[in-house]
Specification:
6 helices, single chain, alpha/beta, three-stranded mixed sheet
């Protein structure tokens, strides 16, 4: 009897995990290498999964806006997107701007996002954040 209860509980958990995987939640993602995020988001695009932005999504993370179809992205009131110019590390421990990286980022962003970035000074070393009513005007609220 105990084995049947345990098996039923495991089955219910597996069913629940299957449906939970239909939505990807982004929160606290600081970004990283552009190439890594391109690969990650190409797979996400193919998967058909919904994306909920529910917190910070910065740097390369923001490429989700162009990589995943708009109708599969929603934002919560906690969503905060951080944009900055691309860079790469040098062998002496410093960083230098990456024109190729900036072109990649720029080509990924939807027109409205590019317009917002331009209005806020463009992609620079310093992070700029898109959130609140400005973000809500571009993407639907999660229900």
């Amino acid at each position: 009897m105990r084995i049947r209860v345990l098996s039923a509980a495991m089955l219910l958990m597996a069913i629940g995990m299957g449906s939970a995987s239909a939505t990807i939640r982004i929160d606290g993602d600081p970004g990283g290498r552009i190439e890594d995020y391109l690969a990650k988001y190409q797979n996400l695009r193919k998967s058909g999964e919904q994306v909920v932005i529910d917190g910070v999504c910065s740097s390369a993370c923001t490429m989700v806006l162009g990589a995943v179809p708009r109708n599969r992205i929603c934002v919560t009131s906690r969503a905060r997107l951080g944009f900055h110019s691309a860079w790469y590390p040098t062998s002496w421990g410093s960083t230098v701007p990456s024109p190729d990286g900036n072109r990649m980022l720029w080509s990924t962003y939807p027109r409205e996002v590019r317009h917002w970035i331009t209005q806020h000074g463009g992609l620079k070393r310093q992070m700029i954040y898109l959130s609140g009513s400005e973000l809500a005007a571009m993407y639907p609220a999660c229900i």
